[in-house]
Amino acid sequence: MARTTRNSAGALSRLESQKIHLKSICLQYQLYLLLNSHFFCLLKNEMGLIIIFLCASVPKTAAGHCKWAEVLKDLEQIKTSKDIDVSLYTANTDEDKECQEPVMRCFFLETKVILQECLIKNCSKTQDVLNIWKNGNASLENNKLNSTTPAKCKECEEYEEKNFTEFIQSFVKVIQKECKH
Question: Residues with Cβ < 8 Å from 135, sequence gap 6 or more?
Fold first, then answer.
């Protein structure tokens, strides 16, 4: 029963995030209609210019939402798990900018190892791990432009193996760094 509540809380959190995004889109659309119908009239006075400036800043606010936010929430859920005991290839948190995508791919590949371990041991955090893996893969699928690894970037297996706790700490740092960009 507790598992259902926890899953419901995660679903509710995602639903709230979607509501905020939808409200932002609705606001942008209303501003678009306003500008589209009165654009030239607005350019003639100072208040019009202020409205145009405010409308131009709205997409920046909406784009400020990090695509990794849901993954970060789920990482926070699993980081204290006592029933996950694996060694994982852990990418460095200070890799070059051009190596960020291969680093993210490495973390999500290793998340699949955690998921397999959880399925075998029937971990209490299996659903959270599955969410991380699904959300990560969905975000990476949308970013397939750089699917080749630059020569100077390491392959996942070249990184040092670390315990679960160190892996999660590094994963969180990398995502936080990615969200700041």
Answer: 68, 70, 71, 74
Band (pLDDT 50/70/90 cuts) for residue 60 is very low
Mean pLDDT of the chain: 76
Token duo for residue 162: 């670390």
pTM: 0.62
Q: Which two tokens stand for residue 92?
A: 């460095």
Distance set, CA 45 to CA 31, 37, 40, 137, 181 (Å): 17, 16, 10, 49, 36
Which SS3 state, helix, strand or coil, does residue 152 take?
coil
Q: How many CB atoms lie within 10 A of CB 35?
A: 15
